[in-house]
Prior knowledge:
alpha+beta; 10 strands
Amino acid sequence: xxxxxxxxxxxxxxxxxxxxxxxxxxxxxxxxxxxxxxxxxxxxxxxxxxxxxxxxxxxxxxxxxxxxxxxxxxxxxxxxxxxxxxxxxxxxxxxxxxxxxxxxxxxxxxxxxxxxxxxxxxxxxxxxxxxxxxxxxxxxxxxxxxxxxxxxxxxxxxxxxxxxxxxxxxxxxxxxxxxxxxxxxxxxxxxxxxxxxxxxxxxxxxxxxxxxxxxxxxxxxxxxxxxxxxxxxxxxxxxxxxxxxxxxxxxxxxxxxxxxxxxxxxxxxxxxxxxxxxxxxxxxxxxxxxxxxxxxxxxxxxxxxxxxxxxxxxxxxxxxxxxxxxxxxxxxxxxxxxxxxxxxxxxxxxxxxxxxxxxxxxxxxxxxxxxxxxxxxxxx
Length: 380
């Protein structure tokens, strides 16, 4: 089905992204999987290519175009390439809005040029060992001291956790203030008391560095408070819709890739003297998968358009996230089955896709939380 949400400029950017991925990512991704993280060099190369901070104003070194469709194009191309270790979408889709909306002029001039050049790799630290989707259960805390805040606590499952130079930490700063009791504190590499724990061993997404972080009496100066003290949870709520839409974009692109891989495989693989694609069951399976992918793509594309127009609400973003990630799981599972025994072999990309896909229904807020958000809107 022909998509109509992109124009010539987006198509040119897609060509740029596809060329960059083929040259700078695909040849090295297997090694990064073994290393457990990507090279910092690919971040610097992405900065030079204009793939970081597309919506950051030019005066800070960015692309100067506030159009999420460029973000979507890059996320789609990374998913299409199976480049699950690359943290560019986290930088562009998740962290950038916090810096653009909340940072002071001084903070923007301090952080954004490196953000766009790839010299500053970012992360956001919400999840804790005892707290996942329930953000109000966060226990990492900071108390007021002269000139800033003293931060203590631990975070886990942090993407870009090892490589990150700048981490937005969600901390409880006003224990009795309820939802107004959380503040965003920017912790930078080298701050005393800021430690990175082990690189976590995951089922999939092996090249994506996911880590535990700990904070022991970390002095965060007032100059590193992002937004208003006490406004952290509100800021999270405002930005989570884009994060969830970004996940949905990647999921439907991943499902389309799994379908393409499987169509090609079933045409080449023979059973009982005939191509697997010639069996009616195979055709029916592929027909159902193709329909699910196209229907999901249509809804996600509509959400992208609504988001660009400033109309995407939390419930629609939640619908896109849970549905697309569930579709991805179903599609990849069926595609593994159509590959037969080879679908279970890691030398085949469908097996890696199977491992990489499972977490999509968990991060960015579990799919159960997504349904709760939708249900609350429906029932008032």
